[in-house]
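user: Here is a favour to ask of a fellow structure person. I have my own habits and do not want them to colour yours. Could you put it straight underneath, so I can go through it closely?

assistant:
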Amino acid sequence: MLNLSSRVLSACALAAFACSPAAAGVGVLERCVQITSVDFTTGVIELRNLAGTDVDLSGWRWCSHDEDQVRRYTAPGGLNGVTIPAGQSLFFHTLNDAALPGEINISGLNGSFALPFDSGAYGLGIFAPINGGLSFGSPEDYIDHLQWSIDGIDNTSADDRSDEAENAGLWTDQGLWISTTAETERIELADLAGTELHSPAAYTVVEPCPADLAAPIGSLDFFDVLAYLAQFDAQDPAADLAAPVGSFDFFDVLEYLAQFDAGCWAGPRAARPGASSRHKPHPAARDLRTRAQNAWPHRGLRVNSMAWGWSFGRRRSCRLARSMIPINRTAPERGPTDEDP
């Protein structure tokens, strides 16, 4: 039996266990166990119990497909004796580098798995023996499913069990895919209410965020700006973002601001830091603006934002408002801010 004392969900994430057998269309507790994230940078799949009751995974099996491999099943007894306590997760490592409690190597499940595990076309499902014997063709035994592909293009190999997922009430349309890119880092289930019928719109796709230079990762804020300033001051090659390469100038700053403005998320987008209200610029932001104006007056640009406005709340949270407008040169100004059963 695995000890899952680590990685317990926070009280905020599970203010209440929303999933219950009564809410599951097939009337089984097992449908409250769902694939809540896949991480392509680490090769980790998260399986989370959204119910308020422990779930025994004995007899459960993974089924996976990609562009070149179909119907790859883990062994019937691979998860025997494993239980997911209420509100906790198991993390399945496709790179077989599990090291902590609650982490399981795919190789330890025996059977087979479609590899490599990446953001290309892929179908992933988890099955359970609801009525004593597991059948991959039984809608009741299909517990959860998701599928993704580059640009959401339909793939007739990776969709080998997608019709069963649709018939089981787990996926709205077998022809719909979560849209990824070659650089996608992670897919996350946004709906943690225990809803069993999902579509691509239920997931958030996380793309690389080059402007995210400081903690907390995944959130763009004042500390990312400070980190870029430090790189720029040190003439770190990482701050040389625009041509000419080897020269640290105003266009490097413009490129960083463009990356910052692009945000960190793709797919169903999370709220991005930014405020429409304008405030007195923070000193560090004024410093960036002033140095840009003084260093490159011949560019004929006024950094009118770099009108960086900041407001600090009780916990020193901050929001940033900015705009940058190329105009005719003016004096600086303080702008407002394989088996097949």
